[in-house]
Here is the input.
Amino acid sequence: MPRGRRRPAPLDVRKQPLQRRSAATVEAILEAAARILEHNGFSGYTTNAIAERAGVSVGSLYQYFPNRDALTAALIERESAPLLAALEEAGTQASCEAVLLGLIRASVAHQMQRPVLARLLDFEEERLPLGERDARIGERIHTTLVRAFGLPDAPRLDDVSTAAYDVFAIVRGMVDAAGARGETDAVALEARATRAVVGYLWRSETGR
Here is the structure.
């Protein structure tokens, strides 16, 4: 490492909450962080404020999280978990249409459930060094889409892998942009994203 350059702050938790009481403490800290972000944005988003809102000492917070970025990374993981579960469920569907609709619906629902929090965590996800994590998630979604494009009702595509990457980019881009604009109409966003994906895929069919 060049002299004078700081090492990146560690993002891993210091201690895993193995007991019910410690798990409840971690959950209280994460929810306190979420609520501060929702109500105050990044203003006042400090470990002291988070600990106070969670009803724990700063020392207790630091037992689990070495710094604020590690706490934010854990919050991103927590908020992403229901999305990933819904995406996994969508991938088990028996038709390409059902898989695509499931992916779109899960992405929109994640953005709209706590829209302010989702938007701010999007900013933090771009800032923090979470590339390996994002790559794993992206690869899982890509694999799901490639499988869907092999189902009987799927469009006939020359390059299935590229189409899977494109669909992921279309949905993610539209949902993130809608969140940045503060949109709250999930039905309308889902319909627009579906039209965009269907238009792209079926216009890309081999022979067209």
In short: The mean pLDDT is 87. DSSP finds nine helices and no strands in the chain. The CA atoms of residues 4 and 46 lie 26 Å apart.
